[in-house]
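Our working data are protein records whose layout never changes between entries. The record below serves as our worked example for the rest of this section:
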Amino acid sequence: MKIFIDGAEGTTGLQLNDRLSCLKNVNILNIDNDLRKDTEERARFLNDADVVFLCLPDDAAREAVALIENPHTIIIDASTAHRTHPDWAYGLPELSDRHRDAILNSKRICVPGCHASGFNAIVYPLVKGGFINSESILTCTSLTGHTGGGKRLISSYGNPIIAKKAARPYALTLQHKHLPEMQHICGLQNPPIFLPIVTSVQQGMLVSIPLSLNAAAIWGYLINYYAKAENISVVPFGGKGLLDDGFLDIETLNGTDKMEIFVFGHEKQTLATARLDNLGKGAAGAAVQILKMLLEVKK
């Protein structure tokens, strides 16, 4: 299978290249570095590949899609451009059989955002199960490693002064780019109130949602919902055996493509938290998971 990564020089692109190089029966097409922004040369590579990964800004991703004329080329887009588009499959197969089937039968697949992956993995099942009303206004806090901000933010944390700073909330206009997919995928009538917080650690993510619900009931439902999921697991109630002196570590799943869901609380209040690697299940790892699904079907 011929693979082309458009945007291979970015953080996600570099991670993808490393992960794909470990797979069998995969041939990565490498464009000349001097021609990677040449439209004609890009179009040639885009149309020659069996699978194209787009690791680009939104406008550039849309441009790349427009350049692809080969009807057999499968596009896996890691940008925000197509995550709410009705003709694109949403690449979180664990959400439902419908999502999984859409991925397997589509040539246009979008990779979920890192924050949105954690949020949707918790909220989608709870809306589906009737625990959360679609009219609810939810709140969500996400603690993330700084690699999720791309080259510019990674470079800033190379500065010792910045690296020593405490965790820093951002997107304070409450208009983060992941909000549309969080609302759309979960069928919410209102966008959640979302506070992302960047930290000095490179990778790792904790996405937390407080709910005025019975924690044991939420845990029981989610553990059954994800009982057969390959990459998402619901851990023992209250994180039993997985906490560090009562603290939840952000980096435990770094280097993996897994997500863990924790449920804390009591009869009247729940805190549901998804832990993942923002570059793993939150980006390149999710993209490779989609490719592996497609390769398995072709066997």
